[in-house]
TrEMBL record:
The keyword Lipoprotein does not apply. One of its GO terms (biological process) is regulation of cell shape. It comes from Candidatus Staskawiczbacteria bacterium RIFCSPLOWO2_01_FULL_38_12b. It is found in: Cytoplasm. This is Cell shape-determining protein MreB.
Amino acid sequence: MYNPFKKLFSFMSLDMAIDLGTANSLVYVKDRGIIINEPSVVAVNNKTGQILAIGEEAKKMVGRTPSYITATRPLVNGVISDFEVTEQMLKYFIEKAVAGNKKVFGFFGYSPRVIIGIPCGVTEVERKAVRDAAKSAGARTVFLIEEPLASAIGAKLPIQDPGGNFIVDIGGGTTEVAVISLGGIVTYRSLRVAGDKLNDDIMQFAQKEYKLLIGERTAEYIKINIGSAFPLKDKKEMAMRGRNLVTGLPEEVVVFNDDIQRALERSVKQIISAIKVTIEETPPELLADVMTNGIYLAGGGSLLRGLDVLISRETKMPCKIIDDPLTSVVRGCGLALENIENLANLLEKDEEWGAPI
C-alpha cells in the first residue's frame, strides 16, 4: 500500500555511509553524496581527557603539540584501537553530517542508519567494536560491509554476476586483495602494509641514510611528490628537512626519486606478493575472467607512481586504477545505501535490523 509519508521519513532518517579509515574518514549522505572528507585524527588533552580537536584541525596539530596534548589516530590497521576516542570522532562526523537537519531530528527523535566499511578478516570483537562505537555516537542501526566489496561497488564492477572481479584496495592501514563473484568474496588477502607503512619506510630511510629525524607529514609529502614503485626515467629531487640525530640541530638534505623508490621497494614487494598468492588461490574459471578484465586498484596507495605498471608486469595481467580511487569505499557504501533493497545481501546486519523504510 502506498505510504504518503515514506519520502518524509526517508529524509528524516538521513541514512549515511562512512569510510572509517586509518588515515581519513569520509561520510556519504543519502541523496547528497560525499559531504565530509577529513583525517582520522583526534587531539586529546592527556591531563583532563578533553578532546580539543577532530579531523582537519587535529591533523594540523600532529608533531606540533606540547607534551600534555596528543594528536592521535584512534584506528590502527583499519580497526579500533581506542574505543572512546573513536566514538567521539564518529559522533563528531555524524553530528556534522546532520547539522542542517538538527531541528527535524530533535523534534521527531530520529537517528540515522549507518553503513560502515571494514577490512576483511577482522574479528567478531573488532566488528562489534565498530557497531557499538557507531551506536554510541548516535546511529540507529549499523550495517557493515567489507571494504573490497565496497570498493568494487564504488568502481561499478559487476560483482553480482558470475564472473570474477579482482580488486586491490590500498588504504592507509591495510591493503585488501580480493576476488569477488556473485556478490561475495571468493578469496582474499589482508595485510598491514599500505600507505602508512610507506610513510614509515621513508622515515626509516631518512634515519638510516642521513641520521635525520623527519615527521610523518614530511614523509607523506615526499612519497606523494617523488615516490614511485620502480625507477623512473625522469629524475626528480626535493629537499628533506628534519632534525639531525647526532647534532640535534635542524638540517636539510636533497633526496632523489630513486632513493625513495628503494626505500619503498620492500613494502611494494609485499603487496605484489599478496596479489600473486590471491591469484594462485583463485578458481580457474574466475581466473580466466580476471585475465580478461584485469586487476583493479583502489585506495590512496594505488596512486603511487608506476604501481599499476609494476603489478601488470609481475602478474602478466592488465592492471588499471579506478576513477577517484581515494573515495571508492565510501562511494561503494553510498551506492549500497541508495540501493539497500537490492544489495542488502552484501551487508552484515546487526540484531536490530528491520526492513528499510
